[in-house]
Amino acid sequence: MTTLLSLKNLTKRFGGLVAVDHVNFDVEAGAIVGLIGPNGAGKTTVFNLITGNYRPDEGDVIFDNQSIKTLPTHKIVSLGIARTFQTIRLFHKLAAIENVLAGCHCRMQSGSLAAMFRTPTQRREEHQALQTALKELEFVGLQSQADQLAENLSYGNQRLLEIARALATQPRFIILDEPAGGMNNQETAALIQTIRNIRDRGITVLLIEHDMSLVMEACEQLVVIENGAKIAEGDPQAIQSDPKVIEAYLGTDEE
Amino acid sequence: MKDKRLVIYAVISVVLLLSPLFLNAYWVDVLNNVGLYTILALSLNIILGHAGLFHMGHAAFYALGAYTTAIINTTYHIPILWLLPVSGLVAGLAALVVARPIIHLRGDYLLIVTIGFVEIVRIALVNNVFGITGGSNGIFGINRPILFGWKINKPWEFFYLIWGFAAVTIFLFNRLENSRFGRALNFLREDDVAAEGSGINTAHYKLIAFVIGAFWAGMVGNIFAAKMTIIAPESFNFWESVVLFMIVLLGGRGSIRGVILGAFLVLGLPEIFRQFATARMLIFGAFMVAMMIFRTEGILPPLPRKYPIAKMLGREGSA
Q: Within this chain, do residues A175 and A251 fall inside the same structural domain, yes or no?
């Protein structure tokens, strides 16, 4: 197994608050890794540091043996890291298929002139992008709703549409921020299968999730952070019995 | 439904095309102005409508195009229509230089900076920078355009030049908005964090939107200079930018047909109600307010793009 993503002493401060505090962990290629921790622990900040939405104050993000901490977000996406957002960020007024076409964008070439003169290359590319987009919609099971506006989809389907859009960028690594948020049990069960299917396509998965049933079932490795710092790492069984984790996280059940 | 729409478009086009036959010179000239503003507003629509960038300084690019043509034509006597692409390039280049540092500004901040830009250009023209703009008197003695040996002089001749240019613009911009480029602008307008996170270089696309919009405005400036034969800074004041902004908002952001209708309403209605003198602006203002309340997306909002989904899935008759 090779290391695909590696966080090295990653640190982010917002004023006096240390949101992410010297976090180190590696993600092996082909793994499904969960990042868990109590609310406000800094999980989403870690994601934003990986995808270039924030710049780290210290440390480094290494993806495929290359430092990506200074790259702009769209470059990071074209290197092969795709993401979804915790608060759904779809293009609400556009059709589902167009949302997925947004993901196809970075694998296309045609510019404004090619569009005005509708060159053969441009038309071929459009056709291919549309096929890719339909394929990704089918993968998440939304093919029949391709021409619906994104805002008209159910909450769970909006989450799936975000995943389809991320997959359309043809990533090697996908980051899912609370993919099961707002889903019912049935949808969550289907999501677990989707996540496994994503991995079976050769895409490494890193996810944040509060739904412990999903985390324990889908993830092979877990990283636990609290107050911005990593407190534990290991397989789900080990994490469940880790006293530090129980105290920080699961311990709230014992009140 | 689609066929009905096509019939309406065809009828409107034919009526417009034949209108110089039954309108007097005054009204043909009004239509010429509507045509110029249609093209200008369509170019602003790329920036404001599609990319959602609040740009209220479009008259500056229009002015740069007009002055480029006027200065080069009166100094070196290069034919007007040869200067069409030159005017576009000068305006496009100016957009590149000006927009580069301000492209990350959002909403109202961008609005204020672009208002500043249009004022800077106007004041520079009034102050006769480099001694080439003719100060507040402007530049006169600009040649008429010659198209394939035909000297364009009378209003009806300009009518076909302007509306021919408008037709080409509509054709090209329609293709542009139904492409990867057009979609990218819409994505960043809807949510630029999500667009960037989907792999779209948002800063680059905002900049290109500015450059294309400015390029077109510069070309309109060329035709305007030739139509007037005399240009002065007064023609490119802040109010012109506001009118263009209004046309796009009123007609429908990101909608070609909306912008065309907007141009007819904003320029045509005050002409039709001329006998009401000052009251016409009051009625017009009230109409604008009502629009903003009841139809926030404009009179004719854009239609959703069509994709051959059903065909690609092999479904038949389901659409």
A: yes
Q: Tell me, yes or no, if A89 comes closer than 8 A to chain B by beta carbon.
A: yes
| Residue A112 and residue A223 share a domain | no
Residue of A125, A123, A130 whose CA lies nearest to A109? A125
Say yes or no: A67 and A12 in one domain: yes
pLDDT tens-digit profile of B263-291? 998 888 878 777 776 776 777 778 778 88
Show the tokens assigned to A222.
């877990």
CATH code for position A74:
3.40.50.300
Question: Which residues in chain B have their CB less than 8 angstroms from residue A126's CB?
Answer: 179-180
Burial environment of residue A199 by CB neighbours within 10 A (0 to 12, 13 to 18, 19 or more): middle
Residues paired with residue A243 on neighbouring β-strands, in sequence order: none
Contact B198 A102 (CB under 8 A): yes
Residue A139 pLDDT greater than 80, yes or no: yes
Contact in structure between B149 and B22 (CB atoms under 8 Å): no
A177 in the same domain as A247: yes
| Whether A73 and A97 share a structural domain | no
Establish if A184 belongs to a structural domain: yes
Burial level of A157, CB count in 10 A (0-12/13-18/19+)? buried
User: How many Å apart are CA A96 and CA A65, to the nearest integer?
Assistant: 35
Say what the pLDDT of residue A102 is.
95
**How many domains does one find in chain A?**
2
Tell me how crowded residue B26 is: count the other CB atoms within 10 A of its CB.
10
- CB within 8 Å: A116 and B196: no
Neighbours of A158 (CB within 10 A): 20
Q: Give how far B215 is from chain A: nearest CA, Å.
A: 13
Q: What are phi and psi of A184, to 5 degrees?
A: -85, 175
Per the structure, the complete domain to which residue A121 belongs is given by 93-169
Q: Residue A52: inside a domain, yes or no?
A: yes
Q: What angle do CA A113, A117, A119 make, to 5 degrees?
A: 95
Complex-level ipTM: 0.90
Q: How many CA atoms lie within 13 A of B79 on its CB side?
A: 10
| Cα(A93)–Cα(B148) distance, integer angstroms | 46
pLDDT per position as a tens digit, A199-240: 999 999 999 998 888 899 999 999 999 888 999 899 988 888
Mutation choice for A interface testing from B46, B96, B178, B179 by most A CBs within 10 A: B179
Q: Report the distance separating Cα B21 and Cα B27, nearest Å.
A: 11
| Closest CB from B179, B194, B201 relative to A91 | B194
Span A190-204, pLDDT tens digits? 999 999 999 999 999
Distance, in Å, from the CA atom of A50 to the CA atom of A35, rounded to the nearest integer, reads 13
Average pLDDT over residues B140-165: 87
Contact call for B191 and A78, based on CB within 8 A: no
Residues A163, A193, single domain; the answer is no
**Which residues are registered as beta bridge partners of A176?**
A207
Q: Of A169, A204, A237, which one is at a domain's C-terminal end?
A: A169
Q: Are residues A182 and A154 in the same domain?
A: no
Are A68 and A180 in the same domain? yes
